[in-house]
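Support request from a user on the community tier.

User writes: "When I paste my C-alpha cells into the form, the page sometimes reloads and wipes my input. The last time it worked, I copied everything first. Here is what I submitted, just in case something in the input itself triggers the reload:"
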C-alpha cells in the first residue's frame, strides 16, 4: 500500500532520487516522455531537440502548491529524480554547455517535469546560461508565486518574473494554480471552463499528440492566455517520429565530473574554470537580455578563500548575492563588488513549544553549610 506524501517524505519513490555524482545525466531526451516528444514538429523551432529535467517533487516545491498531495509524480515510479546537492549546479552547467555546443541551431528544455525552482541562485544560473547560449530556450511551470507568505518563495517568484518579463520567448515559465495573475498562467481543472482566455491543453482534448506537435505553452501569441490541464490526464501517447536509416541516436550529454572544469569551444576539450569562463563571455548574449544588468553574470556558487573571481562572477556571501565589477580576490563588501540581491529578513519566531517532560534528578550537591571560607570542612 502506498504511503501518502508528506513534508518529511517528499517523493513516495525515494529509491528513484539520484545524487549528482551517481546520475548518468540530468537532461533526458523528450523521446523518453510521450507527453513531450523527441523534437519540435511545429512552428519556427521545428527540428529542435527537446530535453527535460526532473528534480525531486515536494522537496524542491513550495508548500503552497495546490497539487502538493496530488502531484502526478505520485504515479511516476520509474522517473529518475535529481537532488540539488553540492555538486548539482556544477554538473548541470557542464551538461547544458555540452548540449548547447552540440545544437547551435537551437534546443528546447522543459523545466521541470517534476520539482520546481528551489532557490534564487538556481534561477540566476538559468539567467546566466541564457545570456551565454542564444540557442537555449526553456519552457515549463512553477508554483512559486509573488506575494506568497513564505519570504523565500516570494523571492524566487520575483527572480523568475524578471526572466519571464525580459525574455519570454526564451524563458516561457508559467505560474501554476491561480487566475489572479496577469499573465503566464496554468491551472488544473475538472472540466473545460469554457472561458475565452482559458485554453485546455490540446493534447488532452486530442487536438494534437504532445508538446512537440503543439507549442502552445511557449508561443508568444498565447503568453497572456491561461493553459488549463484536466485532472484525468492524457488520453493519447506522444508522436512517433519515424527514424530514418541515417538518423543518429539522440545526443546524450555526458556531464563533466571534474570539480574545476567545464566544456569550452571544442566539446572534446577540457579547460580550467577560468579559461572556460573567458570563452563563455565571448558568446554574444541574446537580444533583449541585457535590459537587466543582473542577468549578465556567471554564477560561481559561494565565496571561497583564495579564489580569484573574474568580472561578472556572481557569488553568494552573507545571505546576499553579489556580482564582481572587476577581477578580484577580495570578499564581497562593496567596492569591487555590486550587491545584486540583498539578504531577506528573518522570518517571525514560531510559537512556543509545549513544556517538556520533567528531567531525571541530578546528583546530590556538596553541603556548603559545613565548608569554611578557606574551603576547609569544619
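"...and here is what came back when it finally went through:"
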Amino acid at each position: 500500500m502506498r504511503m501518502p506524501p508528506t513534508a518529511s517524505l517528499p517523493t513516495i519513490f525515494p529509491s528513484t532520487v539520484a545524487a549528482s555524482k551517481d546520475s548518468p545525466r540530468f537532461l533526458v531526451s523528450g523521446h523518453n516522455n510521450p507527453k513531450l516528444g523527441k523534437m519540435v514538429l511545429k512552428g519556427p523551432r521545428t527540428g529542435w531537440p527537446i530535453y527535460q529535467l526532473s528534480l525531486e517533487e515536494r522537496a524542491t516545491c513550495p508548500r503552497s502548491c495546490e497539487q502538493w498531495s496530488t502531484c502526478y509524480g505520485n504515479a511516476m515510479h520509474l522517473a529518475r529524480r535529481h537532488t540539488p546537492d553540492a555538486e548539482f549546479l556544477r554538473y548541470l552547467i557542464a551538461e547544458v554547455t555540452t548540449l548547447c555546443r552540440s545544437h547551435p541551431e537551437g534546443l528546447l528544455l522543459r523545466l521541470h517535469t517534476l520539482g520546481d525552482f528551489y532557490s534564487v541562485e538556481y534561477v540566476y544560473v538559468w539567467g546566466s546560461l541564457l545570456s551565454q547560449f542564444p540557442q537555449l530556450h526553456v519552457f515549463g511551470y512553477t508554483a512559486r508565486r509573488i506575494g506568497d507568505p513564505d519570504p523565500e518563495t516570494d523571492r524566487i517568484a520575483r527572480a523568475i518574473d524578471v526572466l519571464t518579463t525580459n525574455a519570454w520567448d526564451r524563458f516561457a515559465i508559467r505560474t501554476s494554480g491561480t487566475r489572479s495573475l496577469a499573465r503566464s498562467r496554468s491551472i488544473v481543472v475538472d472540466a473545460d471552463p469554457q472561458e475565452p482566455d482559458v485554453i485546455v491543453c490540446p493534447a488532452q482534448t486530442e487536438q494534437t499528440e504532445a508538446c512537440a506537435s503543439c507549442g502552445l505553452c511557449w508561443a508568444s501569441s498565447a503568453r497572456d492566455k491561461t493553459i488549463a490541464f484536466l485532472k484525468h490526464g492524457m488520453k493519447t501517447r506522444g508522436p512517433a517520429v519515424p527514424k530514418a536509416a541515417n538518423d543518429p541516436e539522440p545526443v546524450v550529454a555526458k556531464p563533466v565530473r571534474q570539480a574545476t572544469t567545464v566544456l569550452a569551444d571544442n566539446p572534446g576539450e577540457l579547460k580550467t574554470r577560468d579559461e572556460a569562463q573567458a570563452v563563455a563571455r565571448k558568446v554574444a548574449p541574446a537580444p533583449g537580455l541585457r535590459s537587466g544588468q543582473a542577468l549578465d553574470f556567471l554564477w560561481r556558487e559561494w565565496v571561497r578563500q583564495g579564489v580569484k573571481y573574474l568580472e561578472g562572477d556572481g557569488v553568494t556571501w552573507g545571505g546576499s548575492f553579489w556580482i564582481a565589477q572587476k577581477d578580484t580576490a577580495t570578499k564581497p563588501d562593496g567596492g569591487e563588488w555590486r550587491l545584486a540581491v540583498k539578504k531577506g529578513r528573518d522570518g517571525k519566531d514560531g510559537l512556543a513549544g509545549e513544556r517538556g517532560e520533567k528531567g531525571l534528578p541530578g546528583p546530590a550537591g556538596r553541603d556548603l553549610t559545613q565548608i569554611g571560607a578557606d574551603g576547609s570542612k569544619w
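Agent notes: The reload is a front-end session timeout and is unrelated to the input. The first helix runs from residue 88 to 102. The radius of gyration is 25 Å. Escalated to web team.
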